[in-house]
Model the fold of this input.
Amino acid sequence: MRRKIMLVILALCCLCGLTGCWDLVEINQLAIGSMAGGDFDPETKKQIVYYHIINPSALAVQKGSGVKAPVYSYRIEANDMAQLTLKSSDVIPRELFPDQFQSHIVSERFARHGLGKFINFVERQFNRRTDLYLLITDSPMDEVMDTFTLLERIPGRYMRSLIEYQAKVSSTVSLKSRVKDLIENMESTRLTVLPIITLNKSKESATTNRYESIDANKGNIEINGGAVFKKDKMIGKLNFQDVSLYHLLQGDTKVYFSNIKLDSGVVDLYATRIKIKKRLSLVDGKPVWNVDIRARLVILNNQQSERLTTANIADIKNAFNDKIKEQEMAFFDKYTKKGWDLYGLEESINNKRGKDWAAVREDKKIWQTTSLNLSIKTRLADVGGAIDPYMGTQ
Done:
């Protein structure tokens, strides 16, 4: 009997720890967000936020029903970040649920003004998600937020998928393009590079008529470069080619595409399995950044007029290595002289220990005299299905 009583008491104690559904909220009481956009009005100094709220009925399979908008875009304006959350209840008739956000977009003018308030506001939220991708747009913010996307009908998911796919197949974007990546460099001299997106305008991009058009390029959102941040402010841009060179030298690249021109024709190459080792050293009192790049090459297209021999393969590898080294050296010198510490050299020098480095650190701009010692070694591991190109009528 006593044993049964103890079991009942133990069961009751366990039940006390179960909260159940005390805060149950029905799905039709929530405004589920998929993406947020931030802007700044330079005249009124007001903060502007856009919310993409998912329309569940449009995503459900409904036979015989017409095309519906998968998301609705809401624009809210207030004097500060805190008021934006409060004012959302003025236009959104449901409780805002931000846990499903896929990405953040901010306008270029907001980025150049500074994202400090935005970052501090996000950090203070108990349900914050700093792993969301952060993108900058050089197109009008309202037009970007009022654009329907194809294949991925939820624009926030489209942006996320676009970044993750491009990081997989090209070097024009990095997975380290999240809110947290900007936060990590907020208190350091290291710069941050985030993707820039541009809207290819179309009159139908803001209506469901877009789903009836075969031309997917019109009204499409594309990544077209990189925004450079120092702390929380955008200070400049990198073009497509420079973004690729930056990510390769940074070590954030999984694959890298390039073509080379030989006397016998053009060869398109894909570098994979990229491994990078970086080390900072002192040579004659000057800092030297030693970078070793190792990669596996794949031939995508061979337009040479000669056979793919052992000597020809060696020429391809050497031409690729020489081209990348020349481009990276020029890129490094260009932006180092510009005063952009893209690779955190100043921070690395300050963290070095020893008498020699202590003497070097007396010059606060010594990092700008850093020279790049770049070594590139590759091996051609895949020449494709047809080893030699077909000559035809050449």
Notes: Residues 21 and 102 are 27 Å apart (CA to CA). Residues 310-337 form the longest helix (28 residues). The two ends are 99 Å apart (CA to CA). The mean pLDDT is 86.
